[in-house]
Amino acid sequence: MRIHELLALGRQEVLPYALIKMQSPRYRHCWLPISREYSRLGCVGWTDYDMCINDALVFVRDPRTFENVWATTTENACFLYSSTNEASADYQERLERLLAEYHFFHGDPPPELHFAPLVAHH
């Protein structure tokens, strides 16, 4: 099933609607993906964003500068689609472009540290 079909079926809680800028003591470009309901992905109802820091994505560069990804951006949010085109056929392509950008979860070790033991054995 394609992503825009999931949106049409009301599965907005599992698909990113936007990224919300987070304050991280470790990383400059830390953004939390949220659903159309403004909740953490997979959740329904109110979300305390500060408690979700480990679910945030860390990017090497500012996601607001990513080309052909966002329907709109603000200082603290980037939106993959707007309320006028929720089931947009290009949502899947926008999401794929976003996920193609180098990123990792805030709660995980940076990939360089994660793969360091593999390098040490060679």
TrEMBL record:
This is Uncharacterized protein.
